[in-house]
Design goal:
- The chain is of the alpha+beta class and 541 residues long.
- It is built from eight helices and 22 strands.
- Helix 4 crosses helix 5.
């Protein structure tokens, strides 16, 4: 449908033909990111608007609907104030606010007999952040999991609970809400490295009793008598940055486009989803070859075969800290095994967006999950974590490689990260923001883990069983904020006779039982051989 008389340039938008999940034709709006000419035939690299970047692709002219072509809009110049360049137009609100500030400052300065200093603009610090991408959208979530626009972390203001249904939540652009609060109770996170305290009676109390139907149950939430809010009454919001977060302001046309066509890793050929900063000379190759044991990248099959005669590795470097059946986990120090860690980051960047590649891997530990056969230990996925995290993060990045996705390995990686937190005696949470797939996997894991505890509660002496939010957090090592947000996401919280209750319906119970029957892969704590280190002592590095 392309009209060759019209020149299509970078930045143009128009509908592009593609197949949806049902293999039906659709014409979503797309932006042209790049144009190239191969043997006199033009190809266009398109990004589908409102679709994930992993669907970006090169298309031929016959897939373009030229009739609805939108040319890029010219950027409007900044209006001038009084015709002077470099100044913004004034507004009544800004003028009033400025005059009020000057009045207050002058009055304050006069009372002290001091002159007013010239205000200096504060330089904004740009922090690096990443998406945590777990691999497997899991079956235990409600059918509306992908469409639901729930927010995971509630904003917190006062000591009472205010409940919102899932339909009322803000769109999920990130993991924090803006001004609307969902569950408004704040707890100061525990200090890193400090052992968990036994829970007292000041936190939320959960009471459970059986309804008329044996398949339903209700949990009561009672707010505590005191709160642990910050002294100014406005608690600090969860940090939206992490150790490996990319600053999107530095995005350019190069990093927006996939630069590797295909990767051969062992017996698998992978189609990358995103840009990864492999050497420029390798990006023009039809296939990039990787050694599946040391992850070294090579330009040809012959180079790979020659490398395999010299490479003695048959498993990731580092210590094997978990083994059950064919599944193993290896702990890799980013300082001691720098080359492997950097190669792992390069591979992971092909499937993780919003991530900055760190060549300085010293502050990180990498936990690589493998599957064993007669040829060796084959990488399935991994997660990384900071050696010292001031925010109680137990995962920096998490990834299951595409050939192993939708098989339960993503949830196994998440479960393993919390098992390590249990051994360390801490509660943990993944770095924010989460990717779309990571959010689905974590919500599913949190839902299954919390529902498993609530459904296993037994009544004693004929009284309703009781459990606190703190106790759930202690048992699971899931942070209290994640516990509360999961209960809210499942839409279990209701107000009844002056109390906040959780109602477990038959649908929730049945859905949970079906999901647990499908969950065959579980971490066995008895097979974990792990001793945490105190990384605050620099000698340990």
């Amino acid at each position: 449908m392309a009209d060759h008389s019209v020149e299509i340039t970078e930045g143009c938008r128009l509908p592009v033909l593609r197949k949806n999940q049902e293999n039906e034709d659709e014409w979503p709006l797309a932006e042209i990111l790049s144009v190239k000419d191969i043997s006199g035939k033009k190809l266009y690299y398109v990004h589908y608007i409102d679709f994930n970047k992993r669907l970006d692709e090169w298309v031929t002219p016959d897939r373009l609907d030229i009739k609805k072509l939108q040319f890029p809009k010219k950027e409007a110049k900044t209006p001038m104030k009084n015709g002077l360049p470099g100044s913004r137009p004034s507004s009544p609100e800004r003028d009033v606010k400025k005059s009020l500030e000057l009045h207050v400052q002058s009055a304050s300065a006069t009372s002290r007999g001091k002159t007013l200093p010239t205000p200096k603009r504060k330089a904004e610090s740009v922090s690096l952040a990443t998406q945590v991408t777990a691999a497997t959208p899991v079956p235990s979530l409600p059918a509306s999991a992908e469409a639901s626009q729930a927010s995971v972390y509630p904003a917190m203001r006062d000591s009472s609970f205010s409940i919102k249904s899932r339909d009322e939540h803000e769109p999920l652009a990130s993991l924090t809400t803006n001004g609307t609060s969902s569950i408004q109770r704040h707890h100061i996170p525990p200090q890193p490295g400090r052992k968990r305290k036994s829970c007292g009676g000041t936190d939320e109390m959960v009471k459970m009793f059986q309804n008329n139907s044996p398949r339903c149950s209700t949990v009561y939430l009672l707010p505590g008598e005191d709160s642990q809010d910050s002294s100014d009454g406005i608690p600090s919001a969860p940090r939206m940055t992490g150790s490996l977060v990319s600053d999107r302001s530095h995005d350019d046309i190069v990093t927006r486009m996939k630069n590797i066509d295909c990767i051969e890793l062992g017996r698998h050929r992978l189609k990358p989803w995103y840009f990864s900063p492999y050497p420029q000379e390798l990006t023009s190759l039809p296939i990039l070859y990787l050694c599946e044991f040391c992850l070294k990248y090579l330009k040809s099959l012959k180079c790979l075969q020659r490398h395999l005669t010299k490479c003695n590795l048959r498993h990731p470097p580092g210590n094997e800290i978990y083994l059950k059946g064919t599944i193993s986990f290896f702990e890799i120090d980013g300082r001691k095994n720098k080359a492997y860690s950097q190669n792992l980051c390069l591979l992971a960047k092909c499937f993780l967006d919003h991530k900055t590649l760190y060549y300085d891997t010293d502050p990180f530990l990498f936990y690589v999950m493998t599957e064993y056969d007669s040829k060796g230990f084959h990488i399935v996925g991994y997660f990384s974590k900071e050696k010292e995290s001031t925010e109680d993060y137990n995962v920096a990045c998490i990834l299951t490689l595409p050939p192993y996705q939708r098989r339960g390995y993503g949830k196994l990686l998440i479960e393993f990260s919390y098992e390590l937190s249990k051994v360390e005696g801490k509660t943990g949470t993944p770095e924010k923001p989460l990717s779309d797939l990571g959010l689905l996997s974590y919500r599913s894991y949190w839902s299954q883990t919390i529902l498993e505890i609530l459904m296993d509660l037994k009544s004693e002496n004929g009284e309703r069983p009781q459990i606190t939010i703190n106790e759930i957090s202690e048992i699971t090592s899931v942070k209290k904020e994640d516990v509360i947000s999961t209960l809210q996401y499942l839409n279990l919280i209701n107000y009844y006779k002056g109390q906040y209750i959780l109602t477990l319906s038959e649908d929730i119970v049945d859905g949970h039982e079906r999901a647990m029957q499908k969950r065959h892969l579980r971490i066995d704590p008895k097979c974990l051989h792990f001793t945490p280190k105190d990384w605050s002592k620099r000698g340990k590095w």
